[in-house]
Design brief:
Number of strands: 12
Order of helices and strands: HEHEEHEEEEEHEHHEEEHHHH
Strand content: 15-25%
Number of helices: 10
Radius of gyration: 20 Å
Amino acid sequence: MRLLEWQAKEIFREYGIPLPRGRVAKTPEEARNIAEEISGPVAVKAQIPVGGRGKAGGIRFAETPEEAWKVAGELLGSFVRGVEVKMVLVEEKLSIERELYLGVVVDRSSRAYTALATSEGGVEIEEVAARSPEKIIRMAIDPLEELRPHRARWMVKQIGLEGRRMLSAADILVKLYRLAVEMDAELTEINPLAVTPDGLMAADARLNIDDNALWRHRDLLERFGESELLDLTEREREARRLGLTYVELDGDVGIIGNGAGLTMATLDTVQLYGG
């Protein structure tokens, strides 16, 4: 289950992770009202369950409430990366000095949560891994020891932070790890973690929760609405109605199978033959 940015940020806020001021809007009028409350330039961000919004025009900036109204009107009802925009997050525009990345992911090879940090924030972590893998700092976390503050401080120091910023980033990373464990997250990340004159800020938030753990988080379904949380794409929505497990991947060949092992073997076979 992949939460939208505004939903992930609601969870982040409960864990004490610093966030920009802002709220979600479903109409241009609501976007204007939020911009008036913020009383300054804002970012208007399409809330869709896919990555790469910025490159696709899903993140816009507005200097005034009237401009926020106009931008929200253009985004709402439009399609970004093939997904209809039904709501936007209106939040204060940050003055960003640097963009970093912090994340916690399930690493099946080490059979543990692994903390990730890099100075190359603001781009997909996969791009960084392909282009400059040496810039990604990794640390497998022993579940019996958890992520200790001194280890978190060591990690963020490797990406160029010192002094108060280093302490603040380490605190955020420890909170991110605790969030991942308590929310049964497969992945949670801050990308970018913005370095601003006022301190560090989670400019974006991502939280993917293991579907097999949803019975422990029924409160999320009640809080955000099951349809909003679980209908990620039109195909996934239709599959859920039919009681099917559907995984959206890249490519142009679809696989129908009657078991995970057979399906994965078929995927491997199609790829082997060039699909």
